[in-house]
Amino acid sequence: MHRDPSPVLEFPYLPAPHRELMVSLLSTLDARLGSHLLPSSVPADVLSFHNDSATSFGSLDIRSGGHDSPVDFILESWLHCKLPTGALNITTIFGFLNASTEAPHLLMEFIQGSPTSLILFIDLLPRKDLVLHPQYLAEFYQDTHLEKLRQELENERYVQPYRSSSLYIRSVLSPTAIAVNINCGADGENFMEEIMRAQLSSVAKEVLQIWLDKCACSSAQSEASERHVLVQRDNLIKNKTVEIDLAANLPRMFGPNVAAQIVGAIQKAFRI
Amino acid sequence: MHRDPSPVLEFPYLPAPHRELMVSLLSTLDARLGSHLLPSSVPADVLSFHNDSATSFGSLDIRSGGHDSPVDFILESWLHCKLPTGALNITTIFGFLNASTEAPHLLMEFIQGSPTSLILFIDLLPRKDLVLHPQYLAEFYQDTHLEKLRQELENERYVQPYRSSSLYIRSVLSPTAIAVNINCGADGENFMEEIMRAQLSSVAKEVLQIWLDKCACSSAQSEASERHVLVQRDNLIKNKTVEIDLAANLPRMFGPNVAAQIVGAIQKAFRI
Prior knowledge:
Two copies of one chain form a homodimer. An eight-stranded antiparallel β-sheet of chain A has the order 1-2-3-4-5-6-8-7, sandwiched between helices. Helix content of chain A is 43%, strand content 24%. In chain A, helix 4 packs antiparallel against helix 6 (189-216). The first copy, chain A, is globular. The longest helix of chain A is centred in the last third of the chain and has 44 residues, at 227-270. Chain A has a single domain, classed as oxygen-dependent coproporphyrinogen oxidase (3-Layer(aba) Sandwich), CATH 3.40.1500. The first copy, chain A, is an alpha+beta fold. Chain A is built from seven helices and eight strands. Chains A, B: One of its GO terms (biological process) is chlorophyll catabolic process. Chains A, B: GO terms for molecular function: red chlorophyll catabolite reductase activity.
């Protein structure tokens, strides 16, 4: 069946290296998981939206996993806001697994406040309390050498550790989460392009590969007795993400009506 | 009953501001909790020990909580090693609560590698999975404004965030954990003394006060149904701490025999 490409893949406003990275990540995801995903069920006014004064634009697509897939859903989005100081571009990939597996979720978020500054999160989100489950920590975080990738990026010039202001978000992240602020200074546009094309691109692709191999495409099943807690914990993460991130920021960028539409579509896909 | 002061209180090798801070913290602890603690049960060769070549010295004291106290034990220690490059001084306060309460444990560790450099950890260690228990996060971490104290110290000149190389230790720490490296440079002895006497001392004392008020002296009881998991989680923290921290480092500093004695005394007090 021919499908028109989703508007989320167009990235009409992104700086070129940011766009190239996103296109590459999304096509890897699609090549590996696409055939196991249901068609998008997101309405047209969520696939593409803007605020009344046409200064903010966005696109959000969500595809659920098919029957027998460990994928709960894949969320892909971009937001673009014209600001007096320039433009804000936010791109997000969120790969959520269902309770048939206990393997980590995927989070990638790139918040580019200007051509020379970027805050980013790349992480496999733990599904279990790592203090109580050192085996889980060993399997998904130690043996996968995610720390090496984190250090590789954090040791680059212009890259600083970044902390979310939300203590809940900090708790959700793993101990190898990449959470950094890249600020190349007023004349640093070339540096930023270079970092995005080289180190950042390489690290993001490697983390995605680890998630695809070890998590989204692994046949390891969760214990039936543990599924209740997995679902409870995942629902808390979904609810809190909407509350802290979306419900707080979208109305500011798109006005209350458009924001309510987007949040509603996400809550429906999240089943919360 | 008169008790001789514990050798752990002497700190014969510590730089003066480090000693003053420790004496102040330990006397606050003792004034508030002392009457609820049993006498030390640690043998003389653990209260005071050194390696064969008399280049490393240490003192470790552990007092268990009395009947009806929510304190499991208070561990206080100092280690001193003469090194070719100077001296290493490590001081530790560990306040562990029992399963009658779910309130956080206290961890304070100051690792002074030279008169101008210090790595330190100050934290209330969560007893529960914070992702699954946002109420717990709110009660002990948000409402206590620990983040303000963390930022206060981290924003000081010469202070950098520090990450334990152990992913397990990172998982044990709370999202407001103070984990920093203070490095004042070759000629920075005065700066280090100033930071220890002013900002560090103030922050450490405030965190201790919060722990005493909200955790060690609170009458809030844990749910009987939750105690089994609390004990299981606490035992994992105890076991992993011994494995990662002590069993890995003490033999290097004190030789295998002295190290085994110290680790044995800790395991006995930890009941692991």
